[in-house]
Task: inverse folding
DNA sequence: TTACCTGCAAACTGTTTGCCGCTGT
DNA sequence: ACAGCGGCAAACAGTTTGCAGGTAA
């Protein structure tokens, strides 16, 4: 898909800053933070302001190209919307993170939908608890 | 249980500030925020500083009397540790919150434990998604 | 008496906003 | 030409911290 064309078709613009944010997200294997994206862009283009990164992440999320998730701190994690979705386990003791296949979470999503009419996005926030090591 | 005695037995102190925080949590039907606790205390005892509330919440959590949860904003929610645990559904569109019985979440917890050795605390963070109205 | 605890003020982190000139389309 | 967008600086919310004096045990 031609993101640039799509963005323009929606009356928005494809600026170099927007492209750089998109590229940074493409380079990141998993989720990243705004700060990390900002830092990686500023390494080459120091004139690009962090606030521009924030504004672009928000815009790109509205446009449907990126989404964000929350682990157990106050930092928002961003990733491309077309990456395969997955869940996260984060240990409240050692802080370790672990990705899990989304289908483990499916039965719960189904049940919440059936019993509460609630369409859960179980990839949105991490499951917090104790990892095997720390629970031992 | 005698919290005051228990706290002293652990080498900590029962101050009026600490008691006020505990009382505020007892008065609150569900989870509250530090700001709310602080405000309710300061209505009567304006000299008590918000930072004291934060420090006490942390201390009381370490001592095992309170726990915190996260909904989908950046505010920490506090409650007594002896309140019955429950899950939360929060709508990303309208912001509505809904409590759900913890046993709905049990099968997932069990599975995470079995397949990943991970002891999930599914009451710790809200499940985010679209409520019935907003999904309609 | 001696940790622990408090109030106060200041710092801090992650993020948002106002302003205003610039630039894609 | 005219929205949308960017850089800059300042504001913001929620929370944390350093300090110096106060207080529970």
Result:
């Amino acid at each position: 898909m031609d993101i640039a064309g799509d963005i323009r078709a929606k009356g928005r613009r494809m600026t170099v800053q927007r492209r750089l944010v998109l590229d940074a997200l493409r380079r990141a294997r998993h989720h990243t933070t705004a700060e990390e994206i900002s830092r990686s862009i500023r390494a080459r283009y120091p004139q690009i302001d962090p606030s521009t990164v924030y504004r672009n992440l928000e815009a790109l999320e509205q446009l449907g190209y990126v989404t964000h998730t929350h682990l157990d701190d106050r930092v928002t994690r961003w990733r491309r919307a077309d990456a395969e979705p997955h869940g996260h386990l984060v240990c409240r003791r050692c802080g370790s993170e672990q990705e899990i296949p989304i289908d483990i979470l499916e039965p719960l999503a189904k049940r919440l939908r059936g019993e509460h009419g609630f369409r859960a996005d179980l990839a949105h926030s991490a499951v917090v608890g104790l990892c095997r090591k720390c629970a031992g």
